[in-house]
Structures are given as C-alpha cells and as structure tokens.
Design a protein that fits this description.
single chain; 71 residues; mainly alpha; 4 helices
Length: 71
C-alpha cells in the first residue's frame, strides 16, 4: 500500500508521500488508516491480503500498534 499499487488516486498518493516524509504522529496515523481502509474497499484486493489487513486496522484503531511499528 505504501509503495503505490492499491489503493490508487491523488488522495492516496498524498498519504504515501506523508508517510515517507513523516512516519509517526497523528498525521501519519490518519494517512495509514486512510490507506488501509482504501485497500480494504478495493474489490481487486486479494482475500489473503484482506485477512492480513483487517486485524491490523483493528489493532491500529485500538492503539495496540503504532504507525512506525507497521512501516
């Protein structure tokens, strides 16, 4: 997701740029959450990838994992 395949679009590209420049903090959290949610909404995402992403989104939302731990 951070490399650019799924999801795609200008907003997601901005999220990727932010994560490359500043991979921690509230803005990074928002950018990563947007990328993860965008990937999950993409019907071309492989089911195996979906099974990996759903727990990550939950852990990120709960605060059990930080953005910098995932990047």
């Amino acid at each position: 997701m951070v490399s650019g395949r799924i999801p795609h679009g200008a907003d997601f590209d901005a999220c990727r740029a932010l994560l490359r420049a500043e991979p921690s903090g509230e803005a990074a959290f928002t950018a990563l959450a947007m990328l993860l949610e965008g990937a999950l909404a993409d019907p071309t995402l492989d089911i195996g990838d979906t099974q990996v992403l759903v727990p990550l989104v939950k852990e990120l939302a709960r605060g059990s994992v930080r953005v910098e731990e995932l990047l």
